[in-house]
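Problem 12. The chain below contains 361 residues. Write out its predicted structure in token notation.
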Amino acid sequence: MDDKLRACKHQLAKQRERLMKYPGVLQLGIGRRRRGGELTDELCIIVSVKEKLPSSGLSPQAVIPRELEEGITTDVQQIRYLEPLTVSNRTLAITPAALTSRQRPCPGGYSVGHRLITAGTFGILVRRGTAPGFYICSNNHVLANSNEAAIGDWVLQPGPYDGGQDGDRIGSLSAYVQINFPGQGKDKKKTAAIFWTAAKWVPNQISKLTGCPNRLVVQAEGIIQQPAPNLVDAAIALAASESFVDPRIGPPLLVVEGIRDLALGDRVKKWGRTTSFTEGYVDQVSVVSNVDYGKGVAVFEDQIAIRADSGEFSAGGDSGSAILTTDNYWGGLLFAGGEGVTIANRVSHVLSFLGIRLPTE
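Solution.
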């Protein structure tokens, strides 16, 4: 299994650019082949598409190869779309579970959101390095409005769609990892770079002439850069009061035992604003996804794909949910999904970029 997994990872890295160019491909990942709807033990590269069509109806150039090098095969599956899972038009018809109410103190799993979004999920309570206070961890698109928020903006619980108003402020945006959207923001970044270069020039020249070794470096505090493709959709908000938040998860008030990255086949569960409690398993690893944020498509890599035991593992409004193992270890941060599939960031990436830890550590 280890040798086959390594071969799959090698082929995914080698073939991903070519495979992602086939018409309708939304995602690649490593998982087990399905035959007749049932999982087999055969590891392969899963190619997820908007619509699965018979080969006879496609041109030869549009047919995804059945076999790659090193004996690695592909399995084409249909997921139709991939999008962030805040409340959207696609999920308005879904009657949410009881996790939309105002809670004080509020545990993970309940409705939360930046004042300008609909609603997502309060994932998990964390600390940040040696800084005082407690932080709500969720997605960038939940707490920071997909890069559009300002540090210090209010975060409401419940989220605005669930009736959250100014009096329901639970915290304020402290930091977010910026999502990279290919081809967007180039002119704005160029203008900003020219402005700040000019702004720094006078004080830095004075420092140079007076022999002072210090130089002014201007950066946006709280906005964390990441490489492209993206690794996380993540943000934190400083809780307005310790009494407003609870480090436990869901109505059962589960205690999170620790942190563990997830592996293929691991059993998982989550509490989220819309679908409440669901269980499932890690269906794919090393996932590469094209996620449509409406404002642009963001590419993510090294993600985890999860499927429910039955029905859907998540729906719009569940973004930000903490993915837990059966023994209550935090393993991922839910942020997107499609037909039958949920996508989550690896917990190790979330911790690394935001510099966070569990309150008990």
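Discussion. DSSP finds four helices and 22 strands in the chain. Students who got a different answer should revisit the alignment rule from Section 12.3.
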